[in-house]
Amino acid sequence: MIPDDRQIRALHEQYAPTPAAFELVYTHCRIVSAVAEQLLDRVRRAAAVDIDADLIRAGCLLHDIGVYRLYDDAGNLDHRGYIRHGVLGHDLLREAGLPEALARFCSRHTGVGLSRDDVQRQGLPLPPGDYQAETAEEQLVMYADKFHSKTSPPVFLTAAAYADSVRRFGQDKADRFAAMVRHYGEPDLSELSRRFGHALV
Fold first, then answer.
1. Over the stretch 142-159, which tens digit does the pLDDT of each residue have?
2. 3-state secondary structure of 200
3. Fewest CB atoms within 10 Å of the CB: 15, 19, 23, 175?
4. 57-60: long-range contacts (C-beta < 8 A, 24 or more apart)?
């Protein structure tokens, strides 16, 4: 039920509205997969349950596929509606016939997790619900995603840089991220920065 790398790339190519959108999103997903791979051994040692490496790889490579549905016909990205990319990706993968376990990576990776209270209190344009990572695989993909941003130009983020950015959403979010850093450790981003040519900030 878990697609391989070739099948996942084909899905990106199918849904990407432009070559530039494909390059941005698919490259980011590959980077998140590389970050998660670095952290996987530590997670395996710390976890009391088995961790599915193939599921993590696929989750990383698919987690942002919903971004493609935010592009208009002129190739412009809807930045204001970006918070919706997770639920859009969840729907896209379910429509494509992929299992719920994979679709959940899309809707469960935003920030350090969105609770039902976050959605209501902030008036987010999302269906009422809880969008927090639950499984060990979902948690690792969500964490790995924090170390790279699809800004223009894309950049790698240190743990300190991400902590500063998430603090604006509340100290509880910063505290949650700090707990993740203690649990997972920090990836080595210098080699990835060189390989992909994205600055480390």
1. 999 999 999 999 999 999
2. strand
3. 19
4. 57/5, 57/33, 58/2, 58/3, 58/8, 58/102, 58/105, 59/102, 59/105, 59/137, 59/138, 59/141, 60/29, 60/32, 60/33, 60/36, 60/105, 60/141, 60/144, 60/145
